[in-house]
Amino acid sequence: MAPVFSHGDLRLYLLNLLDEGPRHGYDIMQALSDRTGGTYTPSAGTIYPRLAKLEEEGLVTKTVDGRKTVYAITEAGHAEVEARAGELEGIEAGLADSVRLIADEVRGSVREAMKSLRADLAAASREERAATPQGPREDDPRVFAREQLQRADASVNEFRARVRSDLRTHVARGGDLAATVVDQLTAELDRVARDVTRALRG
Known about the structure:
Elements: H1 9-19, E1 23-24, H2 25-35, H3 44-56, E2 60-65, E3 68-73, H4 75-83, H5 85-131, H6 141-172, H7 179-201
Antiparallel strand pairs: 1-3, 2-3
Helix pairs in contact: 1-4
């Protein structure tokens, strides 16, 4: 993947960002990410050494604000930004082209990955059909048991949802919920659970 910034362009672009106003390091990295549509997110190891170099050159100053270090452009830095305004326009244009190319590469990679995934899934499906050429018969007791289990799950979930809704609506409307009602509900559920267990054990 082609780099977003050519050699030396990042230095000037950092100056340009600081010419817009003081920023702390994370804010600078976030601004770079935002202006490249998220296709370029520089690391601290990329940004801070360049900021330190700009400070050495007298183009940037830094001040500590609590736990943050804020960088600001100097008059000399501002003068360089103005003197190289034409280069900045070229950087902006090149940046837009780079971002477009990277986005195209990413879309191409995603398309290839999806194509490969679909091919893998199709192959796996063919292998599975080959391994089990004859599916389970409708009268297979295992198939019937799974169907009944799904019915039971649906019934239990429907009962739970209905009772829960009734209880919540009743309380929300200011109704009382006596402990005896909850005790009775619990007892009935226990009784049904025991009946189901006995029926399963035959």
